[in-house]
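Predict the structure of SIS domain-containing protein.
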Amino acid sequence: MNQLELLTQRYPILESCVADIQAAFEFLKASYEKQGKLLVCGNGGSAADAEHIVGELMKGFKNPRKLSETAVVALQNVDTEMGEVLAQNLQGALPAIALGGHVALSTAYMNDCAPLLCFAQQVNGFGEVGDVLLGISTSGNSKNVLYAAVTAKAKGLRVIGLTGAKESKLSAMADVCIRVPQTETYMIQELHLPVYHCLCLMLEDYFFTK
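Done. Here is the predicted structure for SIS domain-containing protein.
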């Protein structure tokens, strides 16, 4: 049974999201295959979700992610003793950055410039053609997430939205938007977690269990 089947078995309410989850996975897979990265942003609980996603992608989630023999040899060639420790403990990673986590940068930009453009400034600095922005917004209308999405599309990034059931500015702008079938904020957030866990598991299966 694949990860999407497991998801809908456990959360039948998410059956309506399967096609969009698959499409989001394809965007992420294509980006990572070309050494791209994921930028993630959201506010409040969605900011916590952004950090959570980064944690699942940047280290082993469900399965071990052993380094390749080439990487192991390269570490040991630099320093035999430390290289061995690193080889035994480092894990394969899928590059991801949560845009809400840079306190000095965020507060400096909010104080000196325009507070609602803080995520957009980081997309402008970090984003490269072929990267992906994941904007998390229960309403789909969070201004700072929308500014980030506009900047991302202008720079050639794919945009994935993760929202509630209602159509929104983010769902209209995103290349794909996963709209979980709830309208109450906390209920939307409760369904966001299994969705992004599924995406992270799908990526781990693809890149690290061949």
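The longest helix spans residues 185-208.
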